[in-house]
User: Fold this.
Amino acid sequence: MIVSLIGAGGKMGGRITDHLIKSQYKALYVETDKKKLEDLTARGLQATPLVKAVKEADIVILAIPDIVIERISHEIVPQMKSGGMLMVLDAAAAFGGELPERSDLSFFITHPCHPPIISDETDPEVRKEWHGGIRARQSIVCALMQGTEEDYKKGEALAQTIFAPIMRTHRLTVEQMAILEPAMAETIQFTFMVTIKEAMEEAIKAGVPEQAATDFMLGHLNSSIWVLFGNIGDYRELVSDGALKTLEMARSELIRPDWKKVFKLDNILKQVKGITKWE
Assistant:
């Protein structure tokens, strides 16, 4: 089976390339950036022209930024051979209706969950692997936007290869994937994590020694994550009364009462368009 990787020298593409090199798939690597082409050459790989790679591929993987997926997919999908598969590594363009129509192709969406904070991994170096795809195990999510059950199996097998080592594979709908990202993981989680980092920086600006603030924040993050996600009991029974009272006061001041509207599908579509159509 021939797999063509568009964006083979990029952040995600480079990791996928590492897996394809060792896999049973015949891979064609497409890259146009001069520096990234040099990196591919240094690894003993030769880039394939886009048109050739697309026409020969059984599966085309788009490892490219969301902002260009609509343009690139409309350029290459008409050139793909009948019965082929287009694999996209994020649900945004698919949920936003930005992929072209072609009934004789299958469309498969997949994305890594990344290695979990709470895990049984004991090797400290592996625990530092925050992205996954090298030695740290991670789960993945997959959705078949268009195609047959055989197409799903084909896409899942490739997804498990390019994101290995795998803990679990979750089959979702494209809509469910968009709920997870951008809504849950980016709009909510990443936004609040950046805010937490900025809060620590404010404490340092206020005169708290940097190392003290860092140790205090990271320790409390670890404690909170275990309390909330470690299945060790009701968090209301595990934290201090003062922390619960602070939570009650802070939520009304810091968080809008209607914040959960982020998960309404029309709002998710707005989030998606903000990702795929920058002004």
About this structure: The chain has two domains: 2-172, 179-276. DSSP finds twelve helices and seven strands in the chain.
